[in-house]
Task: structure prediction
Amino acid sequence: MKRVQFNSPLLPYLFVLPQMAIIVIFFYWPSVQAIQSSFYLEDPFGFSASFVGFDNYVDALTSSYYLRVAQFTVIFTVLVTFFSLALGLLLASKADDVIRGSSSYKTLLISVYAIAPPVAGLIGMMFFDQHIGPFVKMAAWFGWDMKVGINYFDTAFAMITVAVWKQIPYNFIFFLSGLQSIPVSVREAAAIDNRSRLGRFWTVTLPLLAPTAFFLLIINMTYSLFDTFGIIDVIVKDKAANNPITLVYKVYMDGFRGNDIGGSAAQSVILMLIVLVLTFFQFRFIERRVHYN
Amino acid sequence: MHRTNFWDHLILLFGVFIMVGPIFVAFMTSTHEAVDVHMKGLQVTWGDDFVDTYKEVLTTRGGFTGDVTGARMVMNSFILGIGFAVGKIVLSMMAAYGLVYFRSRFSTLFFWMIFTTLLLPLEVRILPSYDVMTKLGLVNTYTGLIVPLLASATGTFFFRQFFKSVPDELLEAARIDGAGPFKFFIDILVPLSKTMMAAIFIIMFVYGWNQYLWPMIMTNEETFYTLVRGIKQILLVWVGSQIPEYNQAFALAVLAMLPPVLIVVIFQSWFIKGLTESDK
Result:
């Protein structure tokens, strides 16, 4: 808090009010409603609703389809997070080493950041297209008959590839700024102690990057869970039946396509809890970091 | 200190190839005729159809009901991107000012209420949000498109952090000079925040422009479609037709990614500054 402040009984509220109004109407109201309707069984037209307690949750968590979707979500999240972090770090550490041309590399590598997930999905669809897609042809060289949109595994492969591609620039930016904030003196000392570049990377650079990496880990998990919606929607094209989808996509399908309002709400609340746990870790860690500084 | 390694450049070039290659191919393919693409696959050379394709997607009415042109979608995307970015900056600067520069009984409560919005993404409360919008009659309006997206506090925390780093002496001096709360805000704090505002604007514009799920739910009239929201429609139409209009699909994809990519590339230092400082 500031040592010097204005004293006014009304003004602070005036300044905070617009933000608060929007938050209350568009954040709290729907959030509370989500929790509320997760305990009700509502008919699709909203005429009647009966209280069913935790039935919606039990239904969701015991359904084999839900569990399959959850399983895919976990696999998807782990793979997307791992590959986009690893590739982002690899490129950032190389860009950090290279002096000449580093700004052109940087510019080109971050450009993909600004592409919307569904647009990335569309481009991905073209590359995995049965008819014109170069990836399908390449896969055919190895005897892999790739059928994205029909074959479960192939669709998952395409989704993960596109999701990783889209996320690399974000990790690249953070890793690069993390690397560039390592003081020259530390680098020089490390260079004297350890002559091998890879050894220096493991023993000095990586531990110093750990806070950034942890922060990115959480961000990437959230990305895989939520922001990939557009990619999945474009690739699945509303035919979720035999295609892999994530939990968020199922919430959307059940709520808007299936009109299962209570079930969809219960699934939303489960997701809220997952995000809460993730965010909790993120803030715990940020708190610690602030302490260190 | 370090020798530039051949392998470093090779890996970076390969990275650039993987990242930028697909965008390049998408653009090149959009300059060819649909039949060409259909027969020969994706293109890496410049075709003759650039003007025709882009003129067609920008001016011809398409979609299911035939109400919307590419130009209209471009406009809608700009309305959403700019409206969201400006709204975010105005709202969050005001709120941050109210929180940092005033002593009030409820500021802690407000802080936590704003803080909680960081916990839940829009995606998990999408159905009830739609419900609320129907009740308020905001479906198929620009207000409904933009305002609910503003209900998150990312910007507030960013400006709060920044205001806290502004030296106290500035306020003391301003008060001695007789500046009131409004004057201090407009004449001193806003000019001081210019760089921050620019950084936030760029990030928020890209975020708004790239919105997909919310516009998809909020707008079912095609005249409100943004480019990103229209993507799936493009795809559905494209899949159904005899010879798929690959070139047009790619042209719309290029239009949908051009403004955000250009902004990020041109203003990358501001963008990176805003991004890394607001999140950490």
In short: Chain B has one domain: 70-275. The mean pLDDT of chain B is 86.
